[in-house]
């Protein structure tokens, strides 16, 4: 599964890992309507591909993603309908990432600002090079980062999220790791090794189990404690009926490698 290099979003899959690359470096990979629609289509394609177990979200060029395309937005200043469609399309893509039945790892090189920072926060895991920078700078241009706030506030504490949203200032990768926006900040030469090492480790697991776990993780977060335990008890009981759970437990007890069937 490979998309052409002139696509807005490139797609390459190998050994259970799909790499999705934002491919508009000359536009700082800004999230225009066209790019958002292309990204949505690729995510939908991946969702139905049983050979893909992990997704890496990357970007071409020196900027991961500069957020929305402000030039496109300015051309549509007087169209409330366009602005609403744009933000709804962006929200759809972010929810597709969260609801995708495969873990998504952000590979961040360069700057991720506004909706680009939202993109990082929406991924399940994120690894950035130490030179990466992050911000939600909408407040600086009179457009508060309200939709990026949804993903940001679900990944870092309230005060850290509010500091980013109210000041609009850039933070470095070390700070992003400290507050939980990313998992790791690594040297640039170690970025791919770290990202794909993580992806390979995850891809070696049962795809069915990963799907169950990711879905349950996000659902239980929104529940009161007692409801979360009741829900996850049912999830685990159901999970026990899966072929891969029976195979995994048997393989562990028999001291052998499991033979996943991904079901």
Give a brief description.
This protein has 263 residues and is an alpha/beta fold.
CATH topology (level 3) name of the largest domain? 2-enoyl-CoA Hydratase, Chain A, domain 1
- Give unreliable regions as ranges: none
Instruction: Please give the radius of gyration in angstroms.
Output: 19 Å
In round numbers, the mean pLDDT is 95
Report strand %.
5-15%
Main sheet makeup:
6 strands, mixed
For the record, give the distance between the C-alpha atoms at the N and C termini, rounded to a whole number. 22 Å
Question: Would you identify the CATH architecture of the largest domain?
Answer: Alpha-Beta Complex
CATH class of the largest domain: Alpha Beta
The spatial strand order of the largest sheet comes to 1-2-3-4-6-9
In sequence order, what are the helices and strands, one letter per element?
Answer: EEHEHHEEHEEHHEHEHHHH
**Please, how many helices?**
11
Helix content: 40-55%
Q: Please, what is the CATH homologous superfamily of the largest domain?
A: 2-enoyl-CoA Hydratase, Chain A, domain 1
Oligomeric form: single chain
Please tell me the total number of domains. Answer: 2
